[in-house]
Every structure is written in structure tokens, then in C-alpha cells.
Design brief:
- The complex is a heterodimer of chains A (405) and B (428).
- By secondary structure, chain A is an alpha+beta fold.
- Among the domains of chain A are: 75 residues, Dna Ligase, domain 1; 166 residues, 2-Layer Sandwich (Nucleotidyltransferase, domain 5).
- Helix content of chain A is 34%, strand content 28%.
- Chain A has a five-stranded mixed beta sheet, with helices on both faces. In chain A, strands 7, 8, 9, 10 and 11 form a five-stranded antiparallel beta sheet that branches.
- With 428 residues, chain B is an alpha/beta fold.
- Chain B has two domains: 148 residues, Tubulin/FtsZ, GTPase domain (Rossmann fold); 201 residues, 60s Ribosomal Protein L30, Chain: A.
- Helices cover 38% and strands 17% of the residues of chain B.
- In chain B, a hairpin with a 2-residue loop joins strand 11 and strand 12.
- Classes of the chains: A alpha+beta (405), B alpha/beta (428).
- Bound molecules: guanosine-5'-triphosphate, adenosine-5'-diphosphate and magnesium ion (MG) (2 copies).
- The site of one magnesium ion (MG) has 7 residues of chain B, from helix 1.
């Protein structure tokens, strides 16, 4: 029998809902998709619960209508600058007398790694496992191998209780369960950077409306993630102030004429704000538009460069830099990213087989949620379901849905 | 280099028709304050005096202000404070009797001080308080540090908040933004000159209202009534038009005035001063119409000071200046001194209905919903309508102004436009 799963990204510009059908053979089919402008969110955080919830609910409704089914649980993307990541490490000595690694050895190491509690008022949203070392060597699945010591680590992201609670409530108000919280950057990366790229080492940057999410992969594993509270809305805001035009016009100018690097062809050329050349219309030099955008985008990559200082190693970043998210559509962003970060940067493309209507950079996260959710991220030798209950219990506690823990 | 030559001369009026009785004093504090005072030319206002205040005796010696006051000698031995605003504050508190003397009988005080400076930032709030206690109405014009003067920022913000507790209105002049108004590769010096031009515009508008007789007249009592409350954010802008359609043109220019489109500028005013100056041809009907538009634009309530002056030298030109303040009782904790000095109370309107700020109200339900959803399909709307909507939809820190906290990264607020912070000039 096939299974229906859902995914929700509460984006700063739009709330996006996706419904997928997983066939018995494991193939995923997207059967419903909808997005709704979201006015309840700024910079990746909910500032108006009712508006955000209304946007999510109507996106979910439409996606359900389109699919002709209903969902019971969804994967939910998490972003916002309240999220902080850190590497937690744990180790365990192999306990059996014959030095054969058992699942329980891995579990003990994992428990030790996750023992560190987040600060008051904060909750872990995502533990991403990094390579397992058996006596200092990276191994895929040590269970059954011989050795004496297991080391493993989790890139662990914790966030503000209130912010997480709000997001979870948006979903529970629609009578849905959150199957798992997934970091937006990791969801996007799952979609845009295939296993080969992740092994080669790659940096995925999702440039959204309110925030820019990034995830750095090394040897196939997450090495670092982060959220910069700057996105396409900042570009629009800068244009609105710098050109002194209303915000919707600024957004329109950005999308129709925006460039992040100057183009000699534009020298001396003007564009109209509204475009109908009525008395209300005004013309603006293309150069002014580009100048405003350039400073903002260059600054964004400078901040990224600072955040990633010491982590960008040519030997570990053979896959280069991938840009996605709606704001990555600005012409010239790749050049600026390449120049400032010092590695080849390009716009990410979707794997083949994704419907062209869906294969838009702003959908990277929501599509990635389903794909990530389908993958097995548990410890080797452990069933997937087991791993997830631990997480869910915790969310239930935050939302007040139950006492399981 | 002196900045004298960079300022326009105030030749609009002759001293003959000056209204007697009111005394005004322009007080420059610290290096930036002194150079601003020295740049001003208000010789044609007989009742406007100039006072230079500094701890730096050499800077004082170079000033051309009519009156000078050195303070803090005990702490700095005649040198600057080296950016230590606590030092200047302390020194000014210790020597407050001297400055009190200088404030005796003064009705209107203009404070000019760079809040990124130790002397300016430390002493200005103290002087503002003393002036209020002495019963004066206090307007402050305060240059704020460039983004690259990182270490000075938090201090300047602190001093600004302090000053806002006491002055009736504080007009911040962020150096970053002023740089935008200069030529393509404007230097810091030109930026200072721009600050000077703005200060000059602001002060001359207020002085003209108080000291000149006009077509539509106001007096000091009006001004005091309007700005009596403690101000929160302010707005300040101007526009000029020429020729047949001068007045409409001036409104258009006013609404596009860069000073009104800075981060932190209020879009609504609980107290609003409007001054229109034009040649003899200026019509009463057009004036009324324009004043109504401007009031609506800034959502001004009852506290309006509207003056219109005729100046033959203007020819066909028309100049509009606005200066407004929100009354944010809620926002800033009340100071322990009384902005309710007896003299101030005396001119309060009789009905003392609690006045809540429109801005605060607007904030809640504000944002994008006032913005037309489909700009393309809009009816034929004239520029004025557009720009009006613009200002309504806009808020203090650009599109993020409604958010309670700042988006600080390495000492800079990322929600403030990047081009402003990086000093990149945008020509439109
Ligand atoms: N607009 C403008 N800003 C100025 C001027 N001079 C300095 N500044 C700015 O004001 C701040 C420095 O303040 P100063 O006025 O030199 O310092 P001060 O008040 O004399 O204080 P100390 O010398 O530190 O005791 C800096 O942020 C400068 O960018 C000026 O002439 N005009
Ligand atoms: N063609 C385009 N050029 C530039 N920016 C664009 C373009 N299309 C969309 N954007 C911008 O992308 C942002 C939305 O991207 P998205 O990834 O959906 O963000 P979020 O997930 O934060 O809602 C908006 O700021 C929008 O202005
Ligand atoms: Mg997104
Ligand atoms: Mg000095």
C-alpha cells in the first residue's frame, strides 16, 4: 500500500505545502503542492501567529484538494537566526569480550554525545549525525566489525522554545502531527546537492526572502549549518529606501530589472517604476538599482565568508558552492559569491525527474523536506521509527500535546 | 578648513519686521557642534545668539561664536575628552550653574552636537535638561557617527536616548545618510557641510515662524504648545519648487526629500510644524490645499504649527519645510526632571485628554496591507498619490522598522540599508 506524507515550509515570503505519495517500492510522487503569501513572518520568524497560520492552512488545504487526499503528519522546516549549531561528540568502548562492535556500543556513544542539554529556554531541533570512527578510522557501519573504541558526533542545532512552539502550533492547529523538524538548509541541500556532491564537499546557500540558510558538507556529512538574517526582503527594502519608491514597486523593479553586478550595457539607461508612463510614473537609472543590490548581496556573502572562516578548504570543497532559494535568481549572484567566497559558485539545478513547474529555487526546501524525511538517518543497525520517537516526544512536551518523553 | 563658504546665506528676510520679545540661542557643543554653529549665519535675526561650549580650549579659541563657554578644565586640562562622554557629563553637571546663567531668559534653544563625540554626547543631554528646567523650548540637531566609526555607535545611541528624554525634539543627522546627499564621491567634509545645510534649514524655519510676520501667522506660544510634550521619533524634510507649478513641485520634492527616507525617521507626527515660504504670487487657496495634504500625509493631529511667509526675494520659488515629532510617552522612560516646568504648564491646552501617539497605533496594524496589491492595474494615479502611499506604507527602519529588536551583526544593524552603511552613493 502506498503512503501519504506531507511537508511544510513556513517561508518568509510564502508558506509552502507539499503532499507526496510514497509507493510500496519507495518511489516518491508529488501529488499536491500549494503556496500562499505569508505576511505573518519576518526574517524567518513568526511575528503574527494568526497570519502565518492562515497562510499555512490555506496552502495545506489547497495541496490536499489538489492531491485528492489528506495528510496526517508533515515534515516541518525550521529556520530563523535563533537557531544555533554546535558539534556534540561522544565515544564508547566496545563492550563485548570478543571486541565485536554491537548496536548498543553505538547507542552508548550517541547517548553520550546527546547528553549535553541545551540552555534554559532552548530545545534541540535537529541532531545530524557526522561520521562514525572505529579506532580513529571512518567506517560506514561498524556493527559486527572488530575494534575497541567508537567515536561519533552530532551537529546539533538548538533553537528558542517560543519560536519552535509557534511553528509547531501552526501545524497542530490544523490537526496535523509534526513528524519531524528538519533544518531548512539541510532540506534544501538534500534536494540540490546529490550524494556525490556532498561526498566531494559542497556548500549550499539558500537565499530566501527573510533569511539565508546555509549548510556545509564534507565527506558526505554536515560539517556546519547557519542562518543569516538577511534575504531578498532586505534587497527590496534597500531599493525602496534608496530609490524612494513604494515597496511593491521596489519588489517589481528587483524581479524585472534587478542585477547584482553592474552591466556596462546598462550605462545611462533608465527604467520606469510603474511602467505605464503616467504622471505618477518616474524613471530610474538602471545603475542605481544595481548599485543598491550589489552592496547588499556583496555584504551578505562577506558575512557568510566570516561565518565560514577556516572551514572552506579546497581539498574538502571539491563540489563547489551551490546557490538556491528565490533570491538566488538575481543575475550576478554567482559571480559575487565566487569572488567573495573564493570558490566556484553556481546556481543549483534540480535532479531530473522533478516536474518543471516544481523545479524552482524557492521550492528547494519544501521538496527537500520530503526527500530528507524518506531517507534513513538513524544509527546503523537501528530501525528508523525508533530513532524518531525520541524527537517527537520532546516536541510533544513543548507543545503540550502529551506527556511522552 | 572652515565651512563658512559651504553654507547658503540666509538672506530671505530683512531684520526690520522682526517680532520682538522672544530670545533664541543656538548652542554648539563639542567639535561637531562648534563647526556647525560657526557655519550658520543668522545675523539677520537680532534675537538669535550663538554660544560655543567645549572642554577643548583650542577648539573654542578658533570658534567665531559670539559667546563661548569652556568647561571641564578640572578633568581634561583644556583638552578633549578623548571620546569619554561620562567625563563630559560629569563635568557639565559639576558646572551647571555657569550654563544656567547662559540660559536665563532664553525661550528657544537649539542644541547642535555630534553624539559620537565625548563632549557632544555627554554634555548635550545635560544642557537640554537644564534648558528645559529653565523653561526653554529645546530643539536638538545631532550628527550621528558614520558606520565605520564603530566604537562610537553604542555611545551615540545611548546619548541620543538620553537627549530624547529632555529635548522637545531631536533631529538625528546620520553621517552615513548625509553622505548620500553629497556629490558622487562626497567626502566626510562635504557630508558635514550637508549636515550644516540641514541644520540651517531647520533652524531658519523655526526662527522664521517665531520672529517674522507672515501671511499665515503663528507665534511662539503656538510652537510651544505643539512641541511641549516629550518627543519620541521625529521627522524633518524640505522641498522647493519653481515656476508656475512651484507649490506642487515643492510638495513633490518634500515627499521625496532624502531626510524623510532615513532609517529611524518617523512617518507620522503628533506635533507638526509646516513652513511655506514663497514669492508674492503665492495664493491662499493653494496654501490651504497643500497644508491639508501635508497634515494628512503625516497624520498630524491637533498640534500643528502652520506658517506661510512671503519673501519678495523668492520670486517664483516656493520652499516648504516640515518638522514633526511623535509623542511617545510609552516608548521612553520619563525623566526625573520635569519637562513640566511651570512655564511649560502655563501654555498647555486646557483640555488635557491623554494623548496617545498615532504612531504607536499605526505600528500595530501597519505594514504591507496599505500597499496596493497589484501596482500595475492601478488607476491613473498622480505622483503625489504614489508618494503619499509610499510614506504611509513605510516605517521607521525601512521595511523592518516595525520589528522590536535590531538585527545587529558585528556592530551594524543589518536591517538598515547596506548602501547607507557602506557609504555607497545612489544617484536617482
Ligand atoms: N556632521 C558633522 N559631524 C561631525 C563633525 N565633526 C565631527 N563629526 C562627527 O562627530 C563625532 C565626533 O565628535 P566631535 O564633535 O569631534 O567630538 P567632541 O564632542 O568634541 O568630543 P571629544 O573631542 O571626544 O571630547 C564623530 O562621529 C564625527 O563623525 C562635523 O563638523 N559635522
Ligand atoms: N526573479 C527573481 N529575482 C530576484 N529575486 C527573486 C526572484 N524571484 C523571487 N525572488 C525573491 O526571492 C524571495 C523568495 O524566495 P523564497 O526562497 O521563496 O523565500 P522564503 O523561503 O524565505 O519564503 C523573495 O525575496 C523574492 O523577492
Ligand atoms: Mg526558503
Ligand atoms: Mg572635541
Amino acid at each position: 500500500m502506498s503512503k501519504i506524507i506531507g511537508a511544510v515550509e513556513i517561508g518568509t515570503s510564502k508558506a509552502k505545502a507539499l503532499i507526496g505519495e510514497v509507493a510500496e517500492n519507495g518511489t516518491l510522487n508529488v501529488v499536491g503542492m500549494a503556496s500562499r503569501p505569508n505576511e505573518g513572518m519576518r526574517k524567518g520568524e513568526i511575528v503574527d501567529f494568526r497570519k502565518a497560520a492562515a497562510a499555512v492552512h490555506s496552502a495545506l488545504e489547497d495541496a490536499e484538494k489538489m492531491s485528492g487526499t489528506t495528510v496526517d503528519e508533515v515534515y516541518l522546516a525550521q529556520t530563523g537566526s535563533h537557531l544555533k549549531g554546535q558539534m556534540l561528540r561522544g565515544s564508547a568502548s566496545v563492550s563485548s569480550s570478543d571486541n565485536r562492535v554491537d548496536v548498543t556500543d553505538l547507542q552508548r556513544a550517541a547517548e553520550e554525545a546527546k547528553r549535553r542539554k541545551p540552555d534554559d529556554g532552548r530545545t534541540y531541533v535537529h541532531h545530524v549525525r557526522t561520521p562514525i570512527l572505529l579506532d580513529g578510522r571512518v567506517v560506514q557501519d561498524p556493527v559486527g566489525m572488530f575494534g575497541s573504541k567508537i567515536d561519533l558526533g552530532y551537529w546539533s542545532i538548538d533553537g528558542d522554545d517560543q519560536a519552535i512552539k509557534q511553528a509547531l502550533h501552526v501545524i497542530s492547529n490544523y490537526s496535523l502531527e509534526v513528524k519531524d523538524l528538519i533544518l531548512s538548509s539541510i532540506a534544501s541541500s538534500t534536494m540540490m546537492a546529490g550524494p556525490d556532491l556532498r561526498r566531494a564537499g559542497t556548500l549550499v546557500i539558500d537565499m530566501g526572502a527573510g533569511v539565508t540558510d546555509f549548510a556545509l558538507y564534507r565527506q558526505g556529512f554536515v560539517a556546519c549549518t547557519g542562518v543569516i538574517p538577511v534575504g531578498g526582503d532586505h534587497v527590496t527594502g534597500d531599493l525602496s529606501m534608496g530609490l524612494r519608491v513604494l515597496e511593491p514597486y521596489a519588489e517589481k523593479l528587483k524581479i524585472e530589472h534587478g542585477k547584482a553586478i553592474s552591466d556596462p550595457m546598462d550605462e545611462g539607461e533608465d527604467v520606469w517604476i510603474i511602467g505605464n508612463k503616467t504622471i505618477g510614473d518616474r524613471s530610474i537609472p538602471r545603475k542605481a538599482i544595481t548599485d543598491v543590490i550589489h552592496v547588499r548581496i556583496a555584504e551578505l556573502f562577506e558575512i557568510l565568508s566570516k561565518e565560514l572562516e577556516g572551514l572552506l578548504d579546497p581539498d574538502e570543497l571539491k563540489g563547489g558552492i551551490l546557490l538556491t532559494g528565490g533570491a538566488s535568481l538575481l543575475p550576478g549572484v554567482e559571480q559575487i559569491a565566487s569572488k567573495i567566497l573564493g570558490f566556484n559558485a553556481r546556481r543549483a539545478s534540480f535532479p531530473t525527474g522533478i516536474d518543471s513547474e516544481l523545479a524552482q529555487p524557492e521550492n528547494a526546501t519544501v521538496l527537500g523536506l520530503l526527500h530528507y524525511g524518506l531517507e534513513d538517518h538513524g544509527l546503523p543497525g537501528r530501525k528508523k521509527e525508533e530513532v524518531e520517537t525520541g524527537f517527537l516526544g520532546k516536541f510533544r512536551k513543548i507543545v503540550g500535546l502529551g506527556v511522552q518523553s | 578648513m572652515s565651512q563658512d563658504n559651504l553654507f547658503p546665506k540666509e538672506t530671505n528676510f530683512s531684520p526690520e519686521n522682526e517680532i520682538p520679545g522672544i530670545r533664541a540661542k543656538i548652542i554648539g557643543i563639542g567639535g561637531a557642534g562648534l563647526s556647525l554653529v560657526d557655519g550658520l549665519r543668522f545675523d539677520n535675526f537680532q534675537s538669535v545668539e550663538h554660544l560655543a561650549v567645549d572642554v577643548d580650549s583650542r577648539a573654542l579659541a578658533d570658534s567665531i561664536a559670539g559667546e563661548k563657554l569652556a568647561f571641564g578644565r578640572r578633568h581634561t586640562r583644556g583638552m578633549g575628552t578623548g571620546g569619554e562622554h561620562t567625563l563630559a557629563r560629569k563635568a557639565m553637571e559639576e558646572e551647571k550653574d555657569v550654563i544656567r546663567k547662559k540660559l536665563e531668559g532664553v525661550d528657544l534653544v537649539f542644541l547642535l552636537a555630534g553624539l559620537g563625540g565625548g563632549t557632544g554626547g555627554g554634555a548635550a543631554p545635560v544642557i537640554a535638561r537644564l534648558a528645559r528646567e529653565a523653561g526653554a523650548l529645546v530643539f536638538a540637531f545631532t550628527p550621528l557617527p558614520f558606520s565605520w566609526e564603530k566604537s562610537r555607535h553604542s555611545m551615540a545611541e545611548e546619548c541620543l536616548a538620553d537627549l530624547r528624554k529632555f529635548a522637545n525634539a531631536v533631529i538625528p543627522l546620520p553621517n552615513d545618510s548625509l553622505l548620500q546627499m553629497g556629490g558622487a564621491d562626497a567626502t566626510a567634509l562635504e557630508c558635514f557641510a550637508e549636515a550644516g545645510r540641514n541644520v540651517s534649514m531647520g533652524i531658519s524655519a523655526i526662527c522664521a515662524l517665531v520672529f517674522r510676520r507672515g501671511m499665515i501667522d503663528v507665534d511662539f506660544v503656538h510652537l510651544r504648545k505643539a512641541f511641549n510634550r516629550r518627543a519620541g521619533r521625529t521627522l524633518f524634510g524640505y522641498g522647493e519648487g519653481d515656476g508656475e507649478d512651484a507649490i506642487r513641485q515643492a510638495v513633490r520634492e518634500l515627499l521625496l526629500c532624502p531626510m524623510l527616507h532615513l532609517p529611524d525617521v518617523s512617518k507620522a507626527a503628533d506635533a507638526l510644524l509646516i513652513l511655506i515660504t514663497g514669492g508674492t504670487g503665492m495664493g491662499m487657496a493653494a496654501l490651504q490645499q497643500v497644508s491639508t495634504e501635508i497634515r494628512e500625509e503625516f497624520k498630524a493631529g491637533e498640534h500643528i504649527v502652520f506658517g506661510a511667509h512671503v519673501d519678495e526675494n523668492m520670486g517664483n520659488r516656493v520652499q516648504i519645510t516640515v518638522l514633526g515629532a511623535t509623542d511617545l510617552e510609552a516608548g521612553i522612560p520619563t525623566a526625573d526632571v520635569a519637562p513640566t516646568a511651570k512655564e511649560v504648564i502655563a501654555v498647555l491646552p486646557k483640555s488635557k485628554v491623554a494623548h496617545s501617539s498615532k504612531l504607536a497605533k499605526e505600528k500595530k496594524g501597519s505594514k504591507l496591507k496599505t500597499v496596493p496589491a497589484q501596482p500595475r492595474n492601478k488607476k491613473k494615479d498622480d505622483l503625489d498619490q504614489n508618494t503619499f502611499e509610499f510614506m504611509e506604507a513605510e516605517n521607521q527602519r525601512g521595511i523592518f522598522g516595525d520589528l522590536p529588536s535590531r538585527n545587529i551583526y558585528a556592530g551594524e544593524d543589518l536591517d538598515v540599508p547596506a548602501y547607507l552603511r557602506r557609504g555607497v552613493k545612489i544617484s536617482i
